[in-house]
């Protein structure tokens, strides 16, 4: 397995809990690529993406049964609940690559398979940062306004080239996120603490000394975002 595949495998490992719960094997597309079958890798990415979208469909109670629907239909039905152009572009790329791989006359290269897996990582990163209750079911359900703001910020940092490293839903009103981005040989980290409750936020910061994630990671930027500033 070459270095590109190892890097993708490392990023997919961050989503092992979701994979286990949904019964999907995130390593199968990589194994297909390593064996020289990019078209199989793309087909597997398409099936995984369908499973993720069906879970999102049910979580948001979209009208109709998602079973048996094509990827294009699932994307269309879930679109109102995905307010990130980066993720929608990733889903479009996966759909386009799968369509090409299933039609005769199109040559499928290794780079196409790598792109499909990369775009799947983008989709998984968005789920991890904004919609994990839809997949894991074990986070406290965020208030709708908090969830919207968390989703917006996650989409923004995904667009800037970051991926979600950690997320803790501390309560329905308070969420901590840690983003990571590779810059040459360096890793850059950004922390975000978002809350609607100033008193709860103050208590969290006082209890932890402002260090929610005790680590030596070089957290270059830290933000605290409130719904309102309250004295």
Structure description:
The protein is of the alpha+beta class and 231 residues long. It has ten helices and four strands; from the N terminus they run αααααααααβββαβ. The protein has helices spanning 3-13, 16-22, 28-34, 38-59, 71-78, 85-101, 110-130, 132-135, 144-159, 198-208, and strands at residues 163-169, 174-183, 186-195, 219-226. Strands 1-2-3-4 form a four-stranded mixed sheet, with helices on both faces. The mean pLDDT is 83.
List low-confidence stretches: none
Report how far apart the termini are: 56 Å
- In DSSP terms (H or I, runs of 4 or more residues), the helix count works out at 10
Compute the average pLDDT.
83
What sequence of helices (H) and strands (E) makes up the elements?
A: HHHHHHHHHEEEHE
The helix/strand class is: alpha+beta
Count of individual beta strands: 4
Cα-atom radius of gyration: 19 Å
Largest sheet: 4 strands, mixed
Helix content: 40-55%
Proportion of residues in extended strands: 15-25%
Strand order of the largest sheet: 1-2-3-4
- Coarse morphology: globular
How do the helices and strands line up, and which of them pair or pack?
Elements: H1 3-13, H2 16-22, H3 28-34, H4 38-59, H5 71-78, H6 85-101, H7 110-130, H8 132-135, H9 144-159, E1 163-169, E2 174-183, E3 186-195, H10 198-208, E4 219-226
Parallel strand pairs: 3-4
Antiparallel strand pairs: 1-2, 2-3
Helix pairs in contact: 1-7, 3-4, 4-5, 4-6, 4-7, 6-7, 7-9
Keywords:
231 residues; alpha+beta; 4 strands
């Amino acid at each position: 397995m070459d270095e590109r595949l190892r890097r993708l495998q490392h990023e997919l490992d961050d989503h092992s809990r979701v994979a286990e719960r949904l019964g999907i094997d995130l390593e199968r597309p990589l194994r297909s690529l390593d064996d020289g079958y990019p078209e199989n890798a793309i087909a597997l990415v398409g099936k995984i993406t369908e499973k993720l979208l069906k879970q999102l469909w049910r979580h948001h109670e979209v009208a109709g049964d998602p079973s048996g629907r094509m990827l294009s239909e699932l994307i269309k039905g879930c679109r109102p609940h995905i307010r990130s152009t980066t993720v929608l572009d990733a889903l479009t790329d996966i759909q386009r690559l799968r369509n090409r791989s299933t039609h005769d006359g199109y040559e499928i290269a290794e780079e196409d398979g790598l792109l499909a897996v990369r775009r799947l990582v983008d989709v998984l990163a968005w789920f991890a940062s904004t919609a994990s209750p839809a997949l894991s079911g074990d986070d406290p359900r965020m208030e709708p306004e908090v969830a919207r703001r968390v989703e917006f910020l996650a989409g923004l940092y995904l667009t800037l080239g970051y991926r979600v490293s950690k997320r803790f839903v501390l309560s329905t009103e308070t969420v901590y996120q840690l983003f990571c981005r590779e810059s040459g040989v360096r890793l850059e980290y950004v922390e975000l603490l978002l809350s609607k409750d100033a008193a709860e936020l103050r208590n969290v910061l006082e209890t932890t000394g402002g260090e929610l994630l005790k680590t030596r990671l070089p957290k270059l930027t830290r933000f605290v975002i409130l719904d309102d500033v309250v004295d």
